[in-house]
């Protein structure tokens, strides 16, 4: 572990513990005969996971496709990266501080897939809207036979042993290995013939790292809708090989299905939202959302805030039909961030009311007497929508809502998928049809 990473782990651990004594330990659940270590929703735990993984990062390119619990050939960092409890920049820096860049190129490229997907969707937010609408329509349109197949899939009763095991793993742990996600999505679409939107919604409901960009676009990619005409077909032989023979669904999968098609979808680029700059002369409060939970390592680090607020919003649970495991991780992550911000910025912290999030945020800003509320940018998704609604309310109060974009969070306009070298970070390399 590099000295910098050592310091980060130590500093993160010094923030006030977000859980009552005894509740912050590793939770374990049974999973296919293995003990699954549920990720602890804190920055300290994320940095520890990063430092434990870094020595293995050079073997990642060779080993990453094997799907063998407890999945220690991959990093398990996604819930932390998703909520920016751990930053992409420190993840890449940690890998590069221990290995020559060429040795960890594959790992870095995978980390950058997340940025690529996020940038892609932020420049085309209408694709998220179209997904939400299609999801609702597909749910309503399902006929009796479709509803039965859906019930069997969700109940892990399809008779396809690997599929049923992955559904159980997903719902019990909130995690699935990337290769298992690809296989599951492919079987969902091409063998079970279920609408891809319903499968994407099931992932968002359960995944600890559930993300509008990575999830929607990966499902579209598997279906053959992202790279038009190029779909991902799960093959029994491939599943048997990469699961070390744990599963062998020979004869059970449709390995000949063609890609999906859809009515023309507007894929035109939209301008990036214009983010008003922070006014350093105004009394300000800091608002946290689960989109970015490390404000102390951001352009906000030196801002003299008067207070900090954050808390779960019940509307997000309802909008995404979020399951308890995913919600609990996001809530814990918010609590952890609130505690850290209270310490780092030396200001009072307010936990917002989950049942009246907008009103609660408004009351907090009014009570604090601030003229400006600053938050890290929420790109496309439910939290972006809630911030848009909050902005409207604040306008009546004469309070500015400022969303701060990380310099490294700027979407990679025009960049191709990150399948090349780490030079992708500074050098646009358009490539079509690459594999995430
Ligand atoms: C159908 C489908 C749905 C997916 N939904 C999500 C999602 O909602 N949220 C999400 O974060 N990832 C999603 N992924 C991508 C990927 O499966 C996960 O990021 C990865 O499995 C997380 O495990 P890990 O942290 O051990 O990954 P590692 O292999 O250790 O990779 C390190 C990090 O790189 C990033 N990453 C790796 N692979 C990808 C990828 N293909 N696309 C985007 N980022 C990647 C993640 O941030 C990950 O934590 C999806 C993939 C598929 C095929």
CATH topology of the largest domain: Rossmann fold
- Secondary structural class: alpha/beta
Bin the strand percentage. 5-15%
* Spatial strand sequence of the major β-sheet: 5-4-3-6-7
Indicate the low-confidence ranges by residue numbers.
8-30, 410-415, 420-433
What small molecules accompany the polymer chains?
flavin-adenine dinucleotide
DSSP E strands, number: 7
CATH uppermost class of the largest domain: Alpha Beta
Could you report the average pLDDT, rounded to the nearest whole number?
A: 89
What is the makeup of the main sheet?
5 strands, parallel
Q: Note the run of SSEs as H and E.
A: HEEHHHHHHHHHHHHEEHHEHEHE
Architecture per CATH nomenclature, i.e. the level-2 architecture of the largest domain: 3-Layer(aba) Sandwich
Amount of helix: 40-55%
Q: What is the count of DSSP helices, taking H or I runs of 4+ residues? A: 17
Termini, distance in Å? Answer: 27 Å
The CATH superfamily title of the largest domain: HUPs
Silhouette: globular
Number of domain units: 3
| Rg computed from alpha carbons, rounded to a whole number of angstroms | 22 Å
């Amino acid at each position: 572990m590099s000295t910098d990473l050592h310091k980060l782990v130590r500093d993160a651990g010094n923030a006030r513990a977000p859980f009552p004594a005894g509740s912050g330990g590793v939770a374990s659940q049974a999973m296919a005969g293995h003990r699954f270590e549920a990720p602890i929703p804190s920055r300290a735990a994320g940095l520890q996971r990063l430092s434990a993984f870094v020595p293995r990062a050079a073997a990642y390119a060779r080993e990453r496709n094997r799907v063998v619990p407890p999945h220690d050939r991959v990093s398990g960092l996604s819930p932390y990266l998703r909520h920016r409890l751990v930053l992409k920049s420190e993840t890449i820096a940690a890998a590069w501080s221990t290995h020559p860049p060429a040795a960890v190129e594959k790992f870095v490229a995978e980390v950058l897939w997340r940025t690529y997907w996020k940038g892609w969707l932020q420049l085309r937010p209408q694709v998220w809207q179209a997904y939400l609408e299609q999801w609702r329509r597909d749910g309503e349109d399902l006929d009796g036979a479709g509803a039965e197949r859906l019930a069997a899939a969700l109940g892990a009763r399809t008779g396809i042993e690997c599929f049923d095991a992955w559904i159980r793993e997903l719902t019990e742990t909130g995690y699935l290995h990337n290769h298992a996600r690809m296989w599951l999505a492919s079987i969902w679409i091409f063998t079970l013939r279920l609408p891809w939107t319903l499968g994407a919604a099931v992932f968002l409901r359960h995944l600890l790292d559930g993300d509008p960009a990575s999830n929607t676009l990966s499902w579209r990619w598997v279906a053959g809708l992202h790279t038009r005409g190029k779909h991902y077909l799960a093959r029994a032989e491939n599943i048997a090989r990469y699961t070390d023979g744990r599963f062998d669904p020979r004869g059970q999968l449709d390995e000949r299905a063609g890609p999906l098609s859809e009515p023309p979808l507007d894929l035109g680029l939209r301008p990036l939202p214009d983010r008003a700059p922070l006014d350093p002369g105004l009394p300000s409060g800091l608002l946290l959302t689960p989109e970015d939970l490390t404000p102390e390592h951001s352009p906000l680090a030196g801002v003299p805030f008067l207070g900090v607020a954050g808390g779960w919003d019940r509307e997000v649970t309802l909008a995404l039909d979020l399951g308890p495991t995913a919600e609990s991780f996001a809530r814990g992550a918010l609590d952890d961030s609130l505690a850290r911000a209270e310490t780092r910025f030396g200001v009072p912290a307010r936990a917002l009311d989950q049942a009246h999030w907008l009103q609660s945020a408004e009351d907090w800003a009014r009570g604090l007497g601030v003229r400006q509320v600053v938050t890290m940018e929420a790109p496309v998704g439910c939290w972006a929508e809630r911030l848009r609604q909050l902005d409207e309310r604040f306008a009546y109060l004469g309070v500015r809502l400022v969303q701060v974009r990380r310099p490294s969070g700027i979407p990679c306009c025009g960049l191709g998928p990150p399948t090349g070298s780490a030079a992708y970070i500074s050098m646009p390399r358009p490539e079509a049809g690459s594999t995430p």
